[in-house]
Design goal:
seven-stranded parallel β-sheet, alpha/beta, binds hexanoyl-coenzyme A, Rossmann fold, 295 residues, binds NADP nicotinamide-adenine-dinucleotide phosphate
Length: 295
């Protein structure tokens, strides 16, 4: 049998999927754009001429995102923001408007997540992840939608999700449930706001390891030694691939795509059979001892 080579690698980071200047004069507001995939998505819009607003909590992340956009020559503004807080979200949109006018595109990329067996999860741990990932996404959509409806202007929203929204996410019950809510919210808002010219889509990354991943997530992933061979594509995603998909979804060439969730994962989520590998409990996968209700 010939060696398996998997899906071909993409062009290198730095190439653009769309024609130069596609987003000239367009302002793109990206939550969590100071790290990982948010920064990668913002970078692709920046390469195509957009002005970028980076919204997140931590100064070091805001600074890292700002530097990355400046290196690409893009106009950039930062907006300290906790997306769980409606006033903070409104203030971030005020800052964006002052810098570049009302953002034309909103990318809800910020999310919270850590691996934990459901029986160990505290009520506050559940609430925190749902609050950031689902409620935060709603609050940003709401602010963006209300401002555009008032102004009578069109817009485009991309909500970043995860495929365990529809498969379930053992070890990530909070995040999986929140992402299921995000997918559903995307579909509702797409219908409610299309008459006003606002398009709402979802974008789901597969496995895209990066250096900004939290220690918890990196530790969890670290238990799988060779990640490439675990994917049907025989490789993980490269960040620019997600960024290119995002720029397409918000571009003039995708105006009739609405309420859709685009999965960029090399078909990994469909890799399920009735003869899966032997079951290992989530506790064992995470190297935890027996459940202790007092622990
Ligand atoms: C169990 C935990 C925990 C952990 C926090 N908690 N980390 N429980 N295991 N590893 C609990 C705390 O004990 C607390 O509950 C509650 O969660 C809130 O914790 P805080 O630290 O007070 O919350 P906060 O400061 O708001 O920080 C939120 C956070 C943090 C989610 C805990 O990790 C964060 O800010 N993350 C942002 C970045 C992020 O999560 N990125 C991942 C996105 S990647 P108690 O009961 O003690 O009060 C993704 C998909 C990856 O989503 C897919 C990979 C394959
Ligand atoms: P990441 O680097 O940890 O980024 C998360 C971002 O969210 C951070 O920049 C963080 O910035 C911001 N954030 C968290 N809580 C916030 C809050 N309350 N208010 C404002 N900003 C907040 O994670 P990532 O891997 O790039 O993930 C990006 C998106 O892709 C997420 O939606 C994630 O669920 C999804 N995803 C990723 C993968 C993957 O393989 N990486 C797979 C599936 C889905 P601050 O700390 O500065 O606030």
């Amino acid at each position: 049998m010939a060696d398996l080579s998997g899906l071909p690698h993409p062009p290198p980071a730095g190439e653009t999927a769309l024609k130069p200047g596609t987003f000239d004069g367009v302002c793109v507001f990206v939550t969590g754009a100071g790290t990982g995939l948010g920064k990668a998505i913002a970078s692709e819009f920046a390469r195509l001429g957009a002005s970028i607003v980076i919204a997140s909590r931590k100064a070091e992340h805001l600074e890292a995102g700002e530097l990355a956009m400046k290196e690409l020559g893009a106009p950039v503004a930062t907006a300290p923001c906790d997306i769980r807080d409606a006033d903070s979200v409104a203030a971030a949109f005020d800052a964006a408007e002052s810098a570049f006018g009302l953002p034309d595109v909103l990318v809800n990329n910020a999310a919270a997540n850590f691996p934990v067996p459901a029986e160990d999860m505290s009520p506050n741990a559940w609430r925190t992840v749902v609050d950031i990932t689902l409620n935060g996404t709603f609050l940003c959509c709401r602010e963006f939608g209300r401002r555009h409806l008032s102004a009578g202007t069109p817009g485009s929203i991309i909500n970043v999700g995860a495929s365990y929204a529809w498969t379930g996410g053992p070890g990530f019950a909070h995040s999986a449930a929140a992402k299921a809510g995000v997918k559903n919210l995307t579909e509702t808002l797409a219908v409610e706001w299309a008459p006003y010219g606002i398009q709402v889509n979802g974008l789901v990354p597969g496995l895209f390891p990066h250096e900004d991943m939290t220690a918890d997530i990196q530790g969890n992933l670290g238990r799988t030694h060779d990640k490439d061979v675990c994917q049907p594509a025989l490789r993980v995603g490269q960040r620019q691939e997600l960024g290119w998909a995002a720029t397409f979804l918000a571009s003039p060439y995708a105006r009739f795509i609405n309420g859709h969730t685009l999965v960029v994962d090399g078909a990994n989520w469909q890799r399920r059979t009735l003869t899966n590998p032997p079951v290992v409990s989530v506790r064992n996968q995470m190297g935890k001892g027996p459940f202790d209700a007092g622990g």
